[in-house]
Amino acid sequence: MPLALLALAVGAFAIGTTEFVIVGLLPQVAGDLSVSIPTAGLLVSGYALSVVVGAPLMTAAGARLPRKTVLLALMGVFVAGNLLCALAGGYGLLLAGRVVAALCHGAFFGIGSVVAADVVAPDRRAGAIAMMFTGLTAANVLGVPLGTALGQHLGWRSTFWAVTALGVLALVALAALVPAQPAPADGGLRRELAVFRRPQVWLALATTMLGFGGVFASFTYVAPMMTEVAGFAPGSVTWLLVLFGCGLCVGNVLGGRMADRRLMPSLCAILAVLAAVLAVFSLTAHGKAAAVVTLALFGVAGFATVPPLQMRVMTKAEGAPALASAANIGAFNLGNALGAWLGGLAIDGGLGWTAPNLVGAALAAAGLGVALLSALLDRTPRRVRSVPIPESPRKIEVPR
């Protein structure tokens, strides 16, 4: 395994930790800064919105620079944002720090995916991307619970000091372990934007938004589902989420290996399994043992989609993949928001706590449909129209 992948995974771990750890600290933040819980919740949605906006902007800004240079600059922004959070004396400054830290998120994962794919053999590219995203899955299993516990015992600022230290560690690792790379040949914003003229790039982004949206339609409401329907005590939610996180780790590795063998067949199969697991989850959530097993399978199927989804966009944006890769991270976050919103609508509509599972199954099935359409277009031969070329240039007179 190239050591560059380890450095990228450390960066992903730091970013994943700061993204989700705030959820467990909202009561402490709200009480300390004298704001309501819903107002403190804007620290979550503000981060997500900044990811969507920052992904293309930060990638475009570094389009002509060597990718290692861009990664180092992005991690510097991450450190600055979390340092601002740790020093924040009021809510406004804390929100500003969250927005600054989030600016690097999409561009780091987007450009990092390109770098990870470049440091390995062509038949191991998806596995390399999965290795980088292992840092994100580890953040859910270790970083978020430990960061939450630290903040609850020593104050929420201590968590951001710890994340800042992680960012510095990642910065050092990237500087030392990622090989120097020249600026992309014929780089520039115009070249990166040109790939968005390809319909297959848009189909790949739509597959990501819909397919992964199915994951968050269910996951957003998994805590009340486990307590109100399956009958677990509230204190059990922590270890249930750890179990789900372990499933994410397994699915990430599995998805990378499958995608390296056969990309589109693997992606379609994983989305089909995800839709089936979510549909079944609406039934198994009514029993403890069955709910635990299904939750673990849900984690495996949910994150097995990530390497092939990211690899698909990069493949279809061949030649200038950085901006499209970053845009796909934005598509993941749009899917998160879409799934959570639709799942909430189902609950508000009186359909019960398990209804988000069916919403998630429908979204995953929709993503499968788009993926199948994209695969069909891959097999459709392009018709090339023969255009006669005149033997010599002729002056063309336009009738008046």
Could you please describe the fold and organization of this structure?
- The chain crosses the membrane at residues 38-58, 70-93, 99-121, 128-148, 160-180, 201-223, 229-251, 263-283, 289-309, 321-346, 358-377.
- Its main location: membrane.
- The chain is mostly helical and 400 residues long.
- The chain contains 16 helices and no strands.
- α1 (3-33) packs parallel to α6, α9 packs antiparallel against α14 and α12 (263-284) packs antiparallel against α14 (306-316).
- The termini are far apart.
Question: Can you summarize the main beta sheet?
Answer: none
How far apart the termini lie comes to 70 Å
Radius of gyration from the alpha-carbon trace, in angstroms: 22 Å
Number of strands: 0
Low-confidence stretches: 384-400
Task: Quote the average pLDDT.
Answer: 85
- Give the SSE string: HHHHHHHHHHHHHHHH
